[in-house]
Design a protein that fits this description.
Helix 7 packs across helix 8. By secondary structure, the protein is of the alpha/beta class. A seven-stranded mixed β-sheet has the order 3-2-1-4-5-7-6, with helices on both faces. Helix 2 links the parallel strand 1 and strand 2. The protein folds into two domains: about 180 residues, Vaccinia Virus protein VP39 (Rossmann fold); about 100 residues, Putative methyltransferase TM0872, insert domain (DNA polymerase, domain 1, Orthogonal Bundle).
């Protein structure tokens, strides 16, 4: 299997983890193994745990990574139970790359790309699950489609796209990415197509988020992850769109704040105490060179938290 994927912010994220040779580290989204491989090179007597819900990704990692490494096919949001199963109480570092891998995008049958017309409307990161993009566009109500395209895709033409999807599926089921792209292009004013990104990008993002429930439980995962960190342990999270980044930014802020009482309270009654500190006041972004080498890295943002 040829699994091509360039790990984004590779050096920056590994540096952020401040790896100890005897530490325990978790790569929550192993993907093509880029981050994992670099972690393994930095540990001697330590342990690496690789998690991914894409079986193709895990197969590649098993072939690529040798040493004291454990592989788990699961959703990283189940972190607590996964570490319990391994009898691991605490770890020294956790990394999560919340983006879609290049392999998934570039494999037509996975149905992630709006550039492959005859690809099936799939978009599942975990191919063992049942819900697909085809199910969504053919069964969700117009109101439901409008909501998810607007909220998850931040698409201002969500209403017309949803209306036209419902209209077209009444004639015949929508089965391919190309069919959906045509509907989207017809739903977006012609004058807006000549500038900015592809007109289907935001709708495809929305469908992908819905299929994989990408936003569900991110804040809970972050809390679980910090709870599993040792003293001075670090959590590094890479996001690729504003919805994810907003959740990570706000949750890290909560972790870094002592009192969260309203400012007009005469004294603290919340008993909230900071768990550590956010090391990235502003997110770390790819260099100009990295963006030139890998244009898909352009929207990536890395935020890092250290537990006290």
């Amino acid at each position: 299997m040829i699994y091509e994927h360039k790990s984004v912010l590779l050096d920056e994220s590994i540096e952020a983890l401040n790896i100890k040779p005897d530490g325990i580290y978790v790569d929550c989204t192993a993907g093509g193994g880029g981050h994992s491989e670099k972690i393994l090179k930095s540990i001697t007597s330590g342990t690496l745990v690789c998690i991914d819900k894409d079986t193709d990704a895990l197969s590649v990692c098993r072939e690529k990574l040798k040493g004291n490494v454990k592989f788990i096919h699961s959703d990283f949001k189940q972190l607590n139970s996964l570490l319990d199963e391994l009898n691991i109480d605490t770890v020294d570092g956790i990394i999560a790359d919340l983006g879609v891998s290049s392999y998934q995008i570039d494999t037509p049958e996975r149905g992630f790309s709006y550039m492959t017309s005859d690809a099936p409307l799939d978009m599942r990161m975990d191919t063992t699950q049942t819900l697909t993009a085809k199910d969504i566009v053919n069964t969700y109500s117009e109101a439901e489609l409008c909501r998810l395209i607007h909220d998850y895709g931040e698409e201002k033409f969500a209403k017309s796209i949803a209306r036209n999807i419902v209209s077209e599926r009444q004639k015949a089921p929508l089965l391919t990415c190309g069919q959906l792209v045509e509907i989207i292009e017809e739903s977006v004013p012609h004058c807006t197509r000549k500038k900015g990104s592809h007109p289907a990008k935001r709708t495809f993002q929305a469908l992908r988020i819905e299929v994989n429930k990408e936003l569900d439980g991110i804040d809970d995962f972050l809390r679980d992850a910090v709870g599993r960190l040792n003293h001075n342990g670090r959590l590094a999270v890479i996001t690729f769109h504003s919805l994810e980044d907003r959740i990570v930014k706000q949750t890290f802020l909560d972790f870094s704040t002592d009192c969260i009482c309203p400012p007009y309270f005469p004294k603290c009654v919340c008993n909230h105490r900071a768990l550590g500190a956010t090391l990235t006041k502003k997110p770390i972004e790819p260099s100009t060179f990295e963006i030139q080498e890998n244009p898909r890295s352009q929207s990536a943002k890395l935020r890092v938290f250290v537990k006290k």
